[in-house]
Amino acid sequence: xxxxxxxxxxxxxxxxxxxxxxxxxxxxxxxxxxxxxxxxxxxxxxxxxxxxxxxxxxxxxxxxxxxxxxxxxxxxxxxxxxxxxxxxxxxxxxxxxxxxxxxxxxxxxxxxxxxxxxxxxxxxxxxxxxxxxxxxxxxxxxxxxxxxxxxxxxxxxxxxxxxxxxxxxxxxxxxxxxxxxxxxxxxxxxxxxxxxxxxx
Length: 200
Prior knowledge:
By secondary structure, the protein is mainly α. The chain has helices at about 5-35, 75, 80-90, 95-100, 120-125, 150-160, 165-180; strands spanning about 40-45, 50-60, 105, 135. The protein has a two-stranded antiparallel ribbon with strand order 1-2. A two-stranded parallel sheet has the order 3-4.
């Protein structure tokens, strides 16, 4: 990771956590009240060069189950409150701690699922040549509304064209997108259909 990127990430994440502490605290309280424990969602994701780490997010889904004890589909467990957290990106704020620990960057390709690693083409896998980000080039060009091939092309473009001012531009565009609440979910899906390899 470029040194200037890491220094900027650490400083900005520390400042953001200090400024946003009241919002983090209130969101945590609301999650506990409306969805119960645990407050945080933890999941292993591939980081820089595919090294695994545990991403932190505020929980957005309930634990509601069918009569046989199995979890209900995501669409049925993601209620109004969870949709609000996702649409405002408040659920992503705990990732600032991942950034402080050096597991993520403010800007970079979004960390996806570990199960996708063997499915990437050699070109698609280059998205891991930069640390994963809280936001990224793909996020400001459509987020989850993009197809997988388009998302990966944008991720690789970012890896090939990274510079400090590009990160600043993406952070600014991210603020605009958050207020517009665009691209939160793929059409007909709660978030994004799973990647199954190849071009789709």
